Amino acid sequence: MTPRGLLFPSPARMARNDAILIVSSSPEFPSILDLPTKPPKKPALRSGSNAAPIPENAIRAFTTAASVWRLRQSDEGERNQEEEPLDTQTIQPNPTTGAESAPNYVIELSPAPAPPAKAPGVPKKPRKAATMRKKKEEIPIAQAQGKGSTVPGHAPEAASPAAVIGPAEKPKRKPRAPKASKEVGDDVQTTLPKGKVTKPPTKEKVAKTVAKSATTEKRPRKMVETVSRHFAPDPPAPKTSSKPIVNDEPIDLEPAMRRRTEWTPPPENEPLPSQAHPSSGVEEQTQPADTDAPGRDVFKNLLDTFGCQADNAQPGDTTGVQPSIDILGKRKLIEMLPTSANKTETPQISPVKSKAPKKKLRTITDLATEAYRVPEASESPGPKQDSVLDYFEVEAEQPGNASKGPNNAGKAKAPKKAAKPKVSKKKAEPRKQILLSPTSALKQVSVQDFVFGTVSQLATEEDPDLLRALHEAMKESNQIDDDPFRASSPVISDLAAGRKRAGKKHWAAGARDDDGDLLDLDVFDLTESPAAPQDYRLPKISTALSTVDLTDSPAVVGDIGRTSIDPVALASKQRAPPPPALTHDIEILSSNYNTLDLADPPQISFPKSHFSTQNPRVVQNQPKPSTAGESREVLRPYAVVECSFDLDFEPPPSNQEHHQLIVQSQSPSNMSPAPRAQAPSKPKFELFTDAQLAKEIRSYGFKAVKRRTAMIALLEQCWESKTKAALGSTTAIPSGLSASVSSKPAAAAAVPAAAVSPSRPRGRPRKVSSAATVPPAKSPTRPRGRPKKDAVAASPSKVSKAKAPSIPKPTASNPKRRGAPTPPLVAIADSESDSDSSNPFTSSPMSTASSQERRRMFSSPSPDDLSITEDTEMSLVMSPSDQQEALFGHITKAVTTAPPTTDPAEPSWHEKMLMYDPVILEDLAAWLNAGQLDRVGFDGEVAPTDVKKWCESQSVCCLWRVNLRGKGRKRF
Amino acid sequence: MTIQTKPIPALYTVYILRSTVRHASLYIGSTPHPPRRLSQHNGVSKGGAVRTSRGSLRPWEMVGLVSGFPSMVAALKFEWALTNPHLSMHIPSSSRLTVSRGTKRNGQPRRPAHSMGSILSNLHLLVRVPSFERWPLKLHFFVPDVLAAWKRWCATTKDALRPSLPVVKDFANDGPPSRATASTSAAAEAGQEDAEQARAPWGIYALPLDYEPIKEYVEKGQAIFEFEREGNCVVCRETIDSGRGLHAVCSNKDCEGVGHLACWSRNLLSASGSGETGILPIHGECPKCHGEVRWGDMMKELTLRVRGGKEVEKLLKTKRRRVTKAKAKAVDT
């Protein structure tokens, strides 16, 4: 145990070693067996070590080698030797590795350094010597030998041979060591103090001295090693006991010592106390860890890893420490020195390092964040310092920096930053400005303007002013929309309602309470009362209002009609609200404004439920829209209003680039007519590239769809629904009473209309039923937001709404077709409703009419909707069109009137069919086209697919000539 | 046509397999030989489906099947449609009962899990679908609870099966199989045979695997055409050109009405009201004996006669042997 302990450089490592030692302690014998084989290795090592005297001893040992005791002793001796050499030599390569590996990997580690260093010697001799020593040692015990014999005589020798031998015998040694340590334990304890003392003072030399003193064994060794690696205090070792040894080996040890000097400074104090504790090796090991010094070391080390000042510190330490080191409390001295030295030096060095990387690396993020960066020049000195003290100093400095920082940042951030630095200081990263607490960080983020864009966009738009202008413009535009949500407190209904903007009114219109009733809205039948009061006062919010609702859906009640539109609002309206496009527009807006919107939760989270709930009892006298159609009518006025207002404005193409949008936002007036003209023409999605398709789909808020066909189908549906909605709204205008409501804010009116429009599948199928976060209301056609599974949790209120009003839905839980197998049982219409209910995506109750469509929309996977087969299926399923029906009639006639065969082996087509023979479609089509159709008066040709439809309509078993694998059929 | 034509198989079925251990485990397959196929599923013989190879689910049982497929292709089509009711193009989208949710990794729609209810409902749907409705199919149920589920479904759905579609139950402890609803003469024959045997095989083991049930019919046809006593077409009254063309024979025992294939079909179709627009008759009345005829049976006989020389020979041969054996036994006793 002790010898190994010696090797350990740091407490942490020691802990590992302990465990290892325990495990390894038992296997001694195998090592013995190895002895004969190993000798060849040893000689080389010996020679390297230059230990002439050892070989002599070794020979003696050989004679006695048979006994286990001898072996153990020899092992002990070897260990001592090994330890010494290891300390000296191994330290150079890697103190840490050597120490750690020593128990397990001793062989590997030691041999590398040892063999070259020590000249080849007699292989067996060292072992013999070791055994001899052990024998001798047994009686006299480690103390005498360690101090006297081993140290003086062998120390030089031992070091060399040990290194050589060590590797070969290492396995043996490890197990043996503990035993030896036990035996020696008492003796060792006495010696320990010396070792410990030596370690701290002379980092380099200490190790050697320790090793020599290690002859005393366990504790001294451990202590020595640990100490020695970190701090190689030469003087202490000599003082303690093994001065002579120290003198011999110091040369080798020095380099290793340097390395450890950094680590060990604290241990210096410990050695003395450790001496006081003469107990088992384990205790010793633990002790150092407990002591302050080791702890510091560890901490330092950890810190060092993060720091980049190693170079500076080391030179300073070495130079300063060695001269200054005295035998006594070396470690303290050492620590103090290095820190001071570091401080002085570090500032100089640090600036260089820090600056260089910054200058070199110029990333986009750097560019982007440059403005917000706090000048670090003053701070630079701090980081380099290793010691904890340094960090504290840095902290002290930081406050100043922090104060500076805000100024630099320039923006309103300053106050927050100031707060941040304080927090961050504790964490002790000097350079990095501030670690904000989550809350403070969030606060800052809320204030912060974010610019989102691709790298190229960000890079190209360097002009901060432009970006800022964009931001502001967007902000302004958004404010109108956003306010309703933010400000929305359900309570508002009667009071401030008048004050609220039109935008809020949208939401109010759609707001529902838990029961699915409209909140405050007075349903207003324009048809009956053409002259709608411009002051549209919403009734008080029903008591039923749930708090939840309040948060999510601002039930803004106010004068809907009352909108005084300021230019900004106008602009915003123009962009967003046109009723038909409404949904689209809103979506588009949101998509385009994502950057801005992110900050604004309200926009993003439109409670789907508001719009979706179909069966809400209208609070007041108005007809309760049980079905979409009814509700639609009721709502229509709004739509009308919007239409009149916004007619000219078409939603900007979703594709529009963000930048463009922003620009537009700045000058809203520009937008109107052009896009509209474009809208009607259906884009040919087939011509799009996959990337474009994906983009389009994204613009609609759908998740990426892998298959191209599916993408196209989806887009087409989206487009159709979009256009339909638009058309519907426009058409509604004429029918609707446009005059009355015109004054109303378009936005408010638009929303209900959009929601109502049956054609659109409004929400995108969400895995989570919660309509909450997504702004389904905005875009009935497209579910823009991604279905968030978490959404439910996020906005409980919405969920509650959605669930409450409608059918009990399996919300998010099982997207699986829970009802799938069963639904078939129900009539189709029913099944659909079931599916809807079961469908997690459709959280809100849908009108029966729209449900089908929705389902189709949402169940993109379902073959019917998007798959390629759609066409064919349609044909099969659907009653053939008149034309097709005529064709079928002709085909039937042609088939049945064809002359019967005279050869039973070759029946006519009709006979084949009658005999249930599978018909080959191509052949039949070819036959029909080869004059048969003409014969029956059909001018034209028939395609095999048409023939297939005909066959299937007639229960005729038909086949393609080629099977699905492209091979001909062999049997029928 | 390079296509090699065969007579309509004596039996081709699409079956519903259910684990006797776990009733939720279902499998749909098709086979011309249900007992053999069942033994494969149960691991008794080689060749079972992987899906049914799990030991914990064995033994399997065929709880029901659809028989009467006029060809292997037809059976496979039906099997696929029944297995993939969410995809099958034979099902009009307006009446599709099973809708898939989600997609598999390859982008294909995911198949909803089968349940007995879903299978039966889709079976009910498929036998009514234009692509299959005129096929000479027949439904068999071998387990009471499945039949009960079927009846339940039939009660709930407003779409009725065509009355001519035979549905047969044959339960284990039922003794002689009884007809749940209308049954064909062929089925009747099979049932009678079963009943005659002391320990009548039931279920799939009672199904006729060969042409034995229509042996007499085949013999009659053979006799008629062998001796060229077709006479005139029962429909158009024109003389039948023996050996030229396809001529169907009435399936009723004592009737030797022969007619042109087209004439028969036209007659039957017009009788059923589908007239000009139809191609395939389902059943009808023999213009000669006014007995019920089923187009499937007639075509089976016709194809057997026209194309199935081997089968006919085998069928008739075996009979002779039997007769001889029986006679020998009788003699011995």
From TrEMBL, chain A:
CDD domains the record matches: SAP_SLX4
InterPro entries assigned: AT_hook_DNA-bd_motif, Slx4_ascomycetes, Structure-sp_endonuc_su_Slx4
Region (Disordered): 29-52, 71-298, 338-438, 609-631, 653-683, 751-868
Biased composition (Basic and acidic residues): 72-82, 215-232
Biased composition (Polar residues): 87-99, 276-289, 339-351, 610-629, 662-672
Comp. bias regions, Low complexity: 400-412, 751-760, 792-813, 836-847
GO molecular function, one term: DNA binding
GO terms under biological process: DNA recombination; DNA repair; DNA replication
Post-translational modification note: Phosphorylated in response to DNA damage.
Gene Ontology annotations for the cellular component aspect, listed alphabetically: Slx1-Slx4 complex
Source species, domain of life: Eukaryota
Localisation per UniProt entry: Nucleus
SMART domains in UniProt: AT_hook
Biased composition (Basic residues): 124-134, 413-425
Keywords carried by this UniProt record: DNA damage, DNA recombination, DNA repair, Endonuclease, Hydrolase, Nuclease, Nucleus, Phosphoprotein
Coiled coil: none
Function: Regulatory subunit of the SLX1-SLX4 structure-specific endonuclease that resolves DNA secondary structures generated during DNA repair and recombination. Has endonuclease activity towards branched DNA substrates, introducing single-strand cuts in duplex DNA close to junctions with ss-DNA.
HAMAP family found in the cross-reference section: Endonuc_su_Slx4
Family: Belongs to the SLX4 family.
Oligomer and partners: Forms a heterodimer with SLX1.
Record-given protein name: Structure-specific endonuclease subunit SLX4
Originating organism: Cercophora scortea
Source lineage: Eukaryota, Fungi, Dikarya, Ascomycota, Pezizomycotina
UniProtKB/TrEMBL annotation, chain B:
Cofactor: a divalent metal cation
Keyword Membrane annotated: no
Matches recorded under PROSITE patterns: GIY_YIG (PS50164)
Highest taxon, organism lineage: Eukaryota
Any Pfam family: SLX1_C
Keyword annotations of the record: DNA damage, DNA recombination, DNA repair, Endonuclease, Hydrolase, Nuclease, Nucleus
Record field: transmembrane: none
Protein task: Catalytic subunit of the SLX1-SLX4 structure-specific endonuclease that resolves DNA secondary structures generated during DNA repair and recombination. Has endonuclease activity towards branched DNA substrates, introducing single-strand cuts in duplex DNA close to junctions with ss-DNA.
Assembly information from the UniProt record: Forms a heterodimer with SLX4.
Family matches, as PANTHER family: STRUCTURE-SPECIFIC ENDONUCLEASE SUBUNIT SLX1 (PTHR20208)
Protein name: GIY-YIG domain-containing protein
Organism: Cercophora scortea
Lineage summary: Eukaryota, Fungi, Dikarya, Ascomycota, Pezizomycotina
